[in-house]
């Protein structure tokens, strides 16, 4: 089951590596995700693919799923494989709850009939690739989120209603959802009539709150009879103003929840239905017979009362049967207050629920047909027309009730008058203080009111008195004329509280303010009249801003180190007014510079481009104190000076400057140096290099650079100076000799080194290093710190003898004869690094024990050979302390013991002296002689051209042993004097090469028939292969270091090879027929068949002859030359046609035979043998004669020719085409001159005699 999944992901990976997708052809698509779907409801995901070459072939779709937080894929369903699904989905796939339907050859629909919470995850739609190549994407993924169903739908209406035709119907439905995602609801009311399917929509409100009627109710909806209103957040009310008998049935509402998918389309995720109400509509002709004698009566006590009293409403119902159930309701001005159902349950309207909960609305059953409603205390708003409504309720078999026709009592008007006013007004205090530019806020509290209230605020100290602002009983704010352009507000934050807010108070606003509260009463007619008013006053004092606003500047770390931080605090004590704060800096003797300005809207304006150094933060401590914190980050001397903060306010549309703060000085000093040096006294040797070190053990923070001065204290001389940039210059007192011998450098750490080369005794004394630290300030300017000195003593003394010599690792070595060996001389230790050496090698023979000098290398570079071995000695000095002497081409008499002797010469400006003499250990050399010999006999070998030749190279004396191998080289020289040519080389590792690019090529092979023989085989010998052949054999031994060493070499005698001509083998036949009779004007052919030839590479010159019977003279007709040239020598012109169907078969055809063409015909063949140096005739043969008799007269021939002209023309064209093809074949086979030269000749044209640089050819 997982085979396709693995292949799919492998293909996807390969596509990701091999394609950039800029030209991808196949595209698999699913909708954008994530999709939110509700548990228990279906999921539908379409999957489409495009780009396949065969668009009409049905594709193999598959769906896989990956659970959240997991990486393993689960097989869900396949369009082709019924066993594709895993256990989690297999049962649901078999039961068809999960399906994958093919909508088209390139489209499928994946469906889950009922989603579960475990179905949440990422689904992948993949399509099988039936083509040979991959080009595009073959799968697509989509995330599915499964959410809970939180949609609730309910209806408070009774389960059944019985109404008359023309009666109004009102039903309500509550629908809401608690889904976290953003969703919309749509609501539809349905009428399901008995015996009809499906239910008919009455009216609906879609997700965008757009109403639309059902088809059967469209006309009544247009007339306003049918309506659907949304009341509140979750209530939907259906109203039918006049019922019709066709409205009878079960009425219910259906709510549907919609969600917007990522592709911006809306999708219904769930729906629910409310409880149904069985509606019975009686026709008008049935109403009168069923109404009976039902009567309803309302009793009101009292009908006129004051606010706060109790109102009792008694409803009495008569005219019902003894056990008849009924409902009763109280109405005011047609609006229902409360109702008792047929079971005695009380229902109170939503707008009166609070009064019922608070005990202000009470209802009870006082008798079998009597119910009481009590309102206490009553309000003025409770007055109006009251009525009582009752209707019978018939109990059904299912315990539900069917509502009958209702009956209302006569309406009774209840009037409620307001009681005597207890209105009382209080203000917060007798006086209020406010600062200029601040906010004035006055509060007025009211008690004892019953009706509506309005307030008026007045400035009474003005002359005349000015209205500031008013707030009407409807909540409308009305500023006074003099304050229309001011920022003034009148608020009512609570039912008993009124406030006045006036921004940017001016000094002229001081004085007495009055708060006048008026109470208004609503009459039964709906008119409003003023019942009571009361006023309170208070005094407002306005303080001048100059006397209130205070600026105080404080600081932290105002004495800062260079690069440190400084923080300044500007305390602003002022009311909440728009203010601009400015920071200034005054340096010594200069006017103050503006650094920045902070505007009331929070915008910061920087002056002088210094914002990178300053940071501003504002904090409020309380209602009157604001702190502006200015931080100087990385202070430099340019930030030092006296700081001040200034404030200006914008009052009455102009700026007003306030008193500045105190000045605060900020000082910036350089950091204290932490530099510490370690300078230790040292001693050195005469003529050696001496290094004096001055190390930094502690440094000043800040990544400093260093300037260093080296001084000699004895003579008070400055030797070298290094700047902070590392530039070194000699001191003023330095001598030219100092510049050559003395140098300095800085190492990691840091540490500073003074180097004195070839130290002298006079260099002893006291030295000091003076180090100056350089730091950069935050503006990247350099500054220096005080210098620090480190002093040390240098003592120079003559060195003690320290020469030590080694002779190498090997004490005994064995060297093959004719090989090289080396005697090393390694100076392990020396007294001085400037020492020179005189090295002499010695040799002692084992036979006589006498030690003889061999070779001397003098200190001045002179080399001296004192042994007489001449150019067999080679001197080498790979390193200053390593000398070696190599003896090349070792002879047996070179064996013995070798060592070297070294004299160390110490050099000083005044003299040269020997510091010591040492000799190395002896090296014992043993010369090993190998005895190997090759057959030296000279041989002559003759072969016939075309035959194979074997040339042997035999070992007559040899010594085999472990670690030995042979290499072989074959040589050749031609008959003429010339340079030897290397034919083939076989290395001791078995690698075969052919250095010479010419010659036999692939006709040469090497073999080793037995242990002592090496064989060179030459295939198909050619005359040019003649010459001398010989071999050279080298014997090698594997040394101790894994390298091959040559131990013996020998060369064989020469073999002279002669390649002779083959014996004549030419044989020619003329054909099977000896006598032929040909009709006049017909064609006849004279064949020439070469039965045998001397060489497969021969070429031929073929000539046909004709002899007439009359005169017996033989005449040549036609010749085919070896180079392909054709020659007609008979004058018959275009009646002769030449043809060569095979390389050894030639034919000549005479077309349109004439009587005079009769006679005897034959061919003669000359065989030409080709070689690099010449072309020669190998033999001549003629065929048997062919007798040709021409039959018929000229007239018959003419008729026959005329009748056969068309076949003759066609036959001529075909023969001509065959002749052209034959000539081309002959040309291709023979080349420009003769046959396949490159294959038949070993040494082509003797070119090899001129090769100076043989070409290396690898063995195939």
Molecular structure report:
The protein has 1260 residues and is mainly β. It is built from nine helices and 98 strands. The protein is flat and about 165 Å long. Strands 22, 24, 25, 26, 29, 30, 31 and 32 form an eight-stranded mixed β-sheet that branches. Strands 77, 79, 80, 81, 84, 85, 86 and 98 form an eight-stranded mixed β-sheet that branches. Strands 11, 13, 14, 15, 18, 19 and 20 form a seven-stranded mixed β-sheet that branches.
Topology (SSEs and partners):
Blueprint: H1 3-18, E1 27-29, E2 35-38, E3 43-50, E4 61-66, E5 73-78, H2 87-94, E6 98-104, E7 107-112, E8 121-127, E9 139-147, E10 152-154, E11 160-164, E12 169-176, E13 183-192, E14 200-205, E15 211-213, H3 218-222, E16 226-231, E17 235-240, E18 249-260, E19 266-273, E20 277-282, H4 284-291, E21 295-301, E22 304-306, E23 311-318, E24 325-332, E25 335-340, E26 346-348, H5 353-357, E27 361-367, E28 370-375, E29 384-395, E30 401-403, E31 407-408, E32 412-417, E33 424-427, E34 431-435, E35 440-447, E36 452-459, E37 466-471, E38 477-479, E39 488-494, E40 497-502, E41 511-522, E42 528-543, E43 550-556, E44 559-561, E45 566-573, E46 579-586, E47 593-598, E48 604-606, E49 614-620, E50 625-632, E51 641-651, E52 654-657, E53 664-669, E54 676-679, E55 682-685, E56 690-698, E57 705-712, E58 717-722, E59 728-730, H6 736-741, E60 742-747, E61 751-756, E62 765-776, E63 782-784, E64 788-797, E65 804-806, E66 812-816, E67 821-829, E68 836-844, E69 851-857, E70 863-865, E71 873-879, E72 882-887, E73 896-907, E74 912-919, ...
Parallel strand pairs: 2-9, 11-20, 22-32, 34-42, 44-53, 55-64, 66-75, 77-86, 88-97
Antiparallel strand pairs: 1-3, 3-7, 4-5, 4-8, 6-7, 8-9, 10-12, 12-17, 13-14, 13-18, 14-15, 16-17, 18-19, 18-20, 21-23, 23-28, 24-25, 24-29, 25-26, 27-28, 29-30, 29-31, 29-32, 33-35, 35-40, 36-37, 36-41, 37-38, 39-40, 41-42, 43-45, 45-50, 46-47, 46-51, 47-48, 49-50, 51-52, 51-53, 54-56, 56-61, ...
